[in-house]
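Late entry, nicotinamide-adenine-dinucleotide complex.
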Amino acid sequence: MGISVGLVGLGAFGNCFAPLFKSHPLVDRVALCDQEPDKLRFWAEKPSFRDKFNPRDAFAEFDDILKSDIEALVIITQHWLHAPMSVRAMEAGKHVYCAVPLITVPDADEVLDWCEKVVRTAERTGQLFMFGETTCFRPQAMYCRRRAAEGAFGDFVYAEGEYFHDVDHGLREVKAHRLASRSGKEHARQLEEYERRGIVSGPMMYPTHSTSGPLWVMKTRAMKVSALPFETRLHKDYCGKEPSNETALYLLANGAHMRICEYREIGHPGREMFRIYGNKGSFEHDTWCDKKGATKLTQDEMRDPLPPEVIEAFKGWRKLAAPDPSKLSAKELEDFLGGHGGSHSYLVHEFVDAVAHGRRPAVTAWDAARFTAAGAAAHKSALRDGEWLNIPDWGGPPGA
Ligand SMILES: NC(=O)c1ccc[n+]([C@@H]2O[C@H](COP(=O)([O-])OP(=O)(O)OC[C@H]3O[C@@H](n4cnc5c(N)ncnc54)[C@H](O)[C@@H]3O)[C@@H](O)[C@H]2O)c1
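Prediction complete; structure with ligand written out below:
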């Protein structure tokens, strides 16, 4: 007997996941939820969804799917909604898959409060919570987790991670798109209120692509941070008073040091990646290094296997998602693992398998809080000229 999954937020990113959740062999029933009628219709009317979707399971309001008997909700709404919706879902007795980051609002203290609320709600309710951080399921992260489990790094010495995404690479359009819906317009009004209060945001408020890799592989947390801001020169129209870049240095609980860059102004095609160094072995640029030499790895060598029946079920997801499948190239149809280094398929499988077997999913509420809080604290430090700040700890299993 499979599980029932409700997909909440069927926008640009939710659309990448809808066909994967629907196709997973352990999912028997799919519900759909979006406030925008056209988004809901896109999937509700798909003939390929008929085997697992009943029109009674289409919800225009989050409150209504909370009252339904669906077991697990996949929350891929805009980033300012993730934590509040996750808390409400767990309180309503649902297991939760939450897109990253845990929350982005301009006020770093509010972000830290939400980290605490999500962790405490997961503990109190006992509902399963998984954080959908794509970096944790990139081939590089899977490989490094295996090497770390073998002890091949020795003691960790240093790590670095970055999310380079220049504003000119589509960010203006993404922001306008996310603010255009009903929920987006509500948020635009809230942003004016933060501005009136003099709250200044920054790129470290969307930190999880860069912080998660090192913390996840090393199964540790960041204890202290000092960060510096870079005042925008090219993107004043987008950044306003916010720094376009923030660079942070951390002391980790395992004694290693970590450097994280969140850059929105950089002459670079874009990257979300990490490098990790130990006193016996290291990983950088898809290469394992030790004192004897360096070995370049392929994506397939780095990836963990997925069960064959899951691979089979996911084949052709692009065809399911496309408005006009006949226009897809053979390569596009073949590329079935999904985006962000193939991580989408792994994220979906991990969550569904965990709920179906009643086990704690990889990337927990505590991990979500650790990845997110490292950024919020760095932003606070950057606004205080690099003052060293302690980062709150909410306990829990480290990168279980
Ligand atoms: N690598 C990654 O992990 C990655 C990449 C891209 C986006 N994301 C995350 O995915 C999220 C979604 O991005 P997007 O581009 O799909 O945004 P989007 O604006 O296209 O979609 C969000 C959808 O949520 C719906 N929604 C909002 N509030 C709702 C409510 N109360 N009830 C029902 N539906 C509601 C909106 O109507 C909208 O359709 C972002 O928050 C972003 O942080 C993560």
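Residues 8-14, 33-36, 39, 62, 76-79, 81, 99-100, 134, 177-178, 181, 183, 340 surround nicotinamide-adenine-dinucleotide (CB under 6 Å). Will revisit in the morning.
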